[in-house]
Request: fold
Amino acid sequence: MTDDVLHSPPVHALLADGTTVRIRPVEPADRAQLEGLYQEMSPENLRLRFFAASRRAADQAAERACAPCRPGHRALLAERAQQVLGLAEYHTGDDAVTADFSIAVAEGLHHRGVGTLLVEHLVSAARNDGITTFTADALSENHRVIRLFTDLGLHLTRRLDGPELHCTIALDPDDTYLSAVEERGRTADVASLEPLLRPTTVAVIGAGRKPGSVGRALLHHLHTGGFAGRLFAVNPRCTSVLGVPSYPSVALLPKVPDLAVIAAPAATVPGIAEECGRAGVRALVVVSAGLDSGTARALVTACRAHGMRLVGPNCLGIANTEPGLALDATFAATHPRPGTAGVAVQSGGVGIALLDGLSRLGIGVSSFVSLGDKYDVSGNDLLQWWESDDRTDLALLHLESFGNPRAFSRTARRVTRRMPVLTVDAGRTDAGRRAAASHTAAAATGTMTRQALFTQAGITATHSIGELLQTAALLHSQPLPTGTRVAVVTNAGGAGVLAADACAEAGLVLPQPTPDLVDDLLGVLPEGASTGNPVDATAAVTEAELRACVDRLMDHQGIDAVLVALVPTAVAVATGDDLVRALTRQPARRAHPVAVVRLEQEAPVTLLPAVDGTVPSYAEPRAVARAFAHAARRATWLARPAGTPAELDDVDTARAHEVAEDFLAAHPDGGWLDPRTCAELLACYGIPQLSWAWAETEDDAVLAAERLRGADGRVVLKAHWPGLVHKSEQRAVHLDLRGDAQVRAAFRDLETRFAGLLTGVVVQPLAPRGTELFAGVVQDEVFGPLVLFGLGGTATEVLADHAARLAPLTDHDVHDLITGPRCAPLLFGAHGNGPVDLDGLEQLLHRLSRMAADLPQLAEADFNPVLATPEHVTVLDARLRLLPRRSQDPHLRRLR
Reply:
């Protein structure tokens, strides 16, 4: 066990009631507090803990926990306000992968999740230390601790031995365990947000008499918005602001507020936060901007020390339109309209645009949070709140950064099965962040990484605020389509052509009507109508005829959505027909979605009132086509069962860690692996490589060539030296070598041209013909490992035919990787060549994903080319780069 593992930094996390605790390793100086923990226990609890009401056993336990750090032992404590709330520890014996563990919770603090939270952290630490199993003994009457073991979500076996129960817990973090951790985290998270989003008392700090100040605007919104709780201002220079009573300090308020909204100079914010914490405030919204790094740290420290949740700083504020609450702590121009859309943004300007757009559409908001610099409360928190609030049915996000993308992804995958989650794909990562110029790093982009996250999580990602609102309007008002087949109906041929082009460009299909449908349409449309797709109903169509036409299309099994493109005509005016009314006087939510395009419409999108809902109306066809495409992708995602990771044979994770640690011990700054180490690491995961041999002399190369020559007797020589990435560009490869003389000549050429660099050559048989592919991994600092796949060879970067997904990959992810690139038809037998070994290709990607997920030290993996034939899939050239990184459990419950 390394020194940095033993001295892991403290973290803060939430208990089941939403309060904050600090979890850290036990230190020798904690002995007095741990003795106090046991001394305050009742005799009964001491007996359950030590199998006897023994104060001496308690003292010995405190001494053991506080002993100096040593391998095979770890002790963690939970504390709040310098008070120890619980202790968890383990120690190993002769078996280094099995550890006995114990748990103790302070008197009176049971059933609040202290023990469970400590055990979760202990499990994560133990797995990082290579421990696979916990054992524990408990009295069979100790129902609390047995329930704790049972509810963890880990595989538990129990054996009764007299009055004692011997428990064995496997530490594999399978989906059952991760789901249990998520559920506990959701409960705690939602509870912690109660004082923030459902406060009974609010204080605005920094609200003054001067018109135009942010603090005054916040107080005005809270006051005029009808906030149902008690409202105070904090200002030492006045006793009332806008009719709201004002007090000199938080400490002098007649009631401790649940929420304090701070609009004060940046330098004063940490002091105000500390004052709020000491007074018992439970949540802060800091709209102040301009905090430097020191001020920011002090603000977060105050919030963590006193268990306050924090929104901001540098934000627009928060709102909750819940009936009976009416909380509007923002300084937007108007009050948000009550509704059902949850909104979380980092940009205040984007927040104002979304509030205005949702109010104009009539969708409104359930709750709104401007995250600002996002020191604490994040999009992940808000998704869990909306999942639980029984009001939100649409989630809109604008996130410029992700604190824990893998936790966000798991939460979003769950939430988006209950409601649409939409985002703007905002922010781009500079390509200069790439640490090396491998094919993998060159192919990976920030956009690709974010898109992989959104796709895997089922999030609807748009490219602009306008597109976000246009898509939200459709998803809010219409059912999802069952496919991508769209029927276009118009009263003007030109409008129909524009709509058809927009649908095709969005990836939608316009099927031609069947003969039966043609007959039905001709029976209801005016003479001269065209019944293709688009359906040109002509300018003579009446309201009743248009309604009947749309009804026929809605009833047809070959149509998934209907787009009605209308233009105003003198004919309709003369007859008094309102063609839009043909849609709004019918039930709005039919079997399939319907939307209108009105080219004369000023607003980009509106929702037209209908009999039992609304119908979206767009100003131009591309907007509705994009919205239909997003809706169809969501329907496809929902219809797909959750994917599962592959169960892989012949994986030696322990040996892989040894190989990585040995390499980094010899190369503390990391680097590219030599061919032998690279091959050993690939062998740990059963990744197939073409036969090869290492040669450092001309004679070695000749002997290797004799062993490796295939049926046609040809071999390949590849130069190697540390840091060599693109062999072809350096002309460091000799192909198609026959006989000893050519092998010797090739070796001498490499030796001469790369004198002072060359450390040896790799000798391989010439590979057979097949499809050259590319597979790789790049370890993103924020998102974790990204797996890329596509067309390989020397032109892989030029062609840029790649798909990407975040590891660990499920079976669905692997399918998407294989079918995503433009080269996919080649793999499935296009041009009569027959399919490649698809099972072998899937296995390769699963094994690459497993290696990336197991080894945080793996900065890059670059397999190019990967040869795919109908018989097998083989890596011809592999490059791996390691960096000295330690894993951080992405699913461990902790605050940012």
Residues 175-197 form the longest helix (23 residues). Residues 1-6, 428-437 have pLDDT under 50 and may be disordered. The chain has 30 helices and 39 strands.
